[in-house]
Amino acid sequence: MVTHYQAIDVGIAPTNNLATENTSLLTRAPSPQKNSTIWAKASQYQSFKLLPSLFLGAIIWFGVQPTDELTLTAIHLLAVFSSCICALITTSVDISMLVLTGLTLLAVTHSFECIDHATGDHTECRLCGEVNPLTGDLFECQPNKESFEKSLEGFSSSVVWLIFAAFHLGKAVEVTKLGRRISLMMIKAFGKHTLGLAYAIVLSELLLAPFVPSNTARGGGIVLPVVQSIATTLGSTPDHHPELGSFLTLVGNHANLLSASLYLTGMAANPIVVAKANQLFDIDFGFMTWLQGSIVPAAICAISLPLIIRWSLGLNTQTPTRGKHARGGDNVVQHAQMELNKMGPVSLKEWQLCFVLVGCLGMWVTSSFTHVDSTLVALLGIVALLHMETITWKDVSSNTSAWDTLFWLGGFVTIAQQLSEAGASSFLGHQISQTIERFHLPALPALAIAYFLTTFMFSSLSAHTVAFVGTFLDAGHALGAKPMVLTAFISYFGALGGCMTNFSTGMAAMYYAPGYVPRSKWFIVGAQMALFYLAVYFTVGLSWWSFLGWL
């Protein structure tokens, strides 16, 4: 059969009757096998995979009728937003591609909130130039120009640029290998026993998190290779003595999520919460406020995390491994020292980076006195690193994760702001608040726990944050929840909720992939950690926030 196809492809006539018969059959009608091949190829195209999400968006766009609470513009925004979230959950299409498509569609259809220059009030861009039925005057705005300008508003958000700058600080940590050196030094200092190794991993995550805002890049790119190196050095593989590897794997995974919740720059999606909360409640929940609220409950969790996982796995951590590997602690310390020797002494670039990072941290801590914006501090750090040639502009321009995050995060901030201004977020929030009131549930715990548990449905922490943060904050606002406490719960639970599954974020999938931890055990430990986090933040957390005057 292959010979026949080759003859046809090069234009050579088949020389036997069987070939002629087969060729004529092929030219008369396509076979079912060929049809199935065409269908299989079509299903590989991204546009084909987007059909379910496009169908959902079309239902909302054309099927939902405007009301006094939900304008046509709000419906269009909700349709695009819902379609994007559905695509994030069901496909692997790049998030930036989805955001670009959504922003372009909204701009072309004038589905944004413009400003009526005559009154200064918001009005739907699609109504620009039409008569205001209440006053009889024209809505004075330019739909084409202003719709496009509105689509770019999120890219001027300071928190978006803070994350963008933090990505480049993280790139410097990677380029100079300072992150790897810190991890190895922690292992050398604490690696005599398994519990010490676990705390070294936790400390590495906590030290790197404020400067490496991608939890996947931090966990999967910097810490995970060190964790795997320790496990293999001590003779632990998925098939041979996997207990130690399982312990370190789970500690690394959960430490990453904990560190992501500790800092505003710990995870790329964190600024979305801050932007929405600052807009809705008119509060200042910046870098230091975030850290001030998280540090006490997160410290309790960090101390307890290795102990809980050790108990869950039933490990004896007095020695790193069992039997003939009883001197594993010495082995791993020697391994860490060997790796440090390979790296050589601390380089000039590493010292330069340490100076800049400490300077940035100092300016962030004293921002209440200096009044220097946190984003400006981060940009000053980038400029200093460039001029000292610690990193080059090529490092900045080739840092695709930073540029990609800048685009999709800025786009989603735009859509989130517009959903709020158009009233769509408040509409959904009211529906949730009415449900809570109908069942006589306590508002704050119900919202916080529901937000935490809904993470189970998502394979992206960023997608979960984008999907629900506006809705839950609006619901809390409608129920009269304390703004600072509600914002704290939503902020910290956005990352901690990822503890329940092995697919909540790319980092979790990378830790799960080597096969040290069975899926059932991963979920059991995740459920235990989820209960622990909820208990800590509803007791220690609330007590600490009350002390801060947030209640």
Structure description:
- The chain is an all-alpha fold.
- The protein has 3 domains: 1-28, no CATH class; 47-156, no CATH class; 159-547, no CATH class.
- 71% of the residues lie in helices and 1% in strands.
- It contains 27 helices and 2 strands.
- It has helices at residues 2-9, 17-28, 32-43, 46-49, 51-63, 72-90, 95-108, 143-151, 158-175, 178-190, 194-208, 215-233, 242-262, 270-281, 287-313, 328-343, 348-365, 367-370, 374-387, 393-397, 400-422, 424-438, 443-453, 461-479, 483-496, 506-512, 519-547; strands spanning 113-115, 122-124.
- The protein has a two-stranded antiparallel ribbon.
- Helix 7 packs parallel to helix 21 (400-422), helix 11 runs antiparallel to helix 15 (287-313) and helix 23 (443-453) packs parallel to helix 25.
- It starts with a helix and ends with a helix.
- Residues 1-32 and 317-327 have low confidence and may be disordered.
- Radius of gyration in whole Å, from Cα? 27 Å
- Taken together, the total number of domains comes to 3
- The DSSP helix count reads 27
Based on CA inertia axes, which overall geometry fits?
Answer: globular
**What's the SSE pattern?**
HHHHHHHEEHHHHHHHHHHHHHHHHHHHH
Could you state the oligomeric state of the chains shown? single chain
Percent in strands: under 5%
Q: Major sheet, described briefly?
A: 2 strands, antiparallel
> Average pLDDT, to the nearest integer?
84
